[in-house]
Amino acid sequence: APKVAPKDEL
Amino acid sequence: MNIFRLFGDLSHLAAIAILLLKIWKTRSCAGVSGKTQLLFAVCFITRYIDLFLHFVSLYNTEKVMKLIYISASVFTCYLIFFKFKATYDGNHDSMRAEFLIVPAAGLACLINTKFDAIEILWTFSIYLEAVAILPQLFLISKTGEAETITSHYLFAQGSYRALYILNWIYRYHYESHVDTIAIVAGVVQTILYCDFFYLYITKVVKGQKIVLPA
Q1: Which of B69, B71, B84 has its CA nearest to residue B34?
Q2: Looking at the partner chain, which of A1, A4, A7 has a beta carbon nearest the beta carbon of B122?
Q3: Model pLDDT, residue B109
Q4: Most buried by CB count within 10 Å: which residue of B1, B6, B33, B102?
């Protein structure tokens, strides 16, 4: 299952 | 980092630069919504609050970009509300920003991934960014036209999040990475530009000016 994203985007 | 996110961030930088140049060169912020710029400044500050909390040396481009976004948006607000205040079209920039801020804040408290201050501020920033362009689009509908340079600004601003959607599709497929809140808000944000994108592609690209049926 896709993991929730780390805040690595602007 | 993938090509979509790279061009998305470049498009965002271009939008900020185009607007700053327009205001600085023409020494006027006519046709520019000060409220939208204020909302964008709030978005950047609440999203990159970590820069202020534990300031780490500028060790990567991401931190530099965050600082550029915050300082450029604050400087743009300064130009609109102070330096070129006389040219600010306050009468037409009349959408109530509270109608955007309060629901975004409320929704951020209801729908988030973790109920803690930083996460809620980030979620608020994402929801607010989705609707932050509305006062600008509202202003254009009120004045019935948009300067060509302002149209280019809007096109770059709208393209940035549209490219981010492609970035999320890419990351879902190759990195099984998903951020539902950012994706849903990003889709809503991009949909709000569709009408403008249509006008931009059918008119501005052919050298005509955008004039709305007033």
Answers
A1: B84
A2: A7
A3: 98
A4: B33
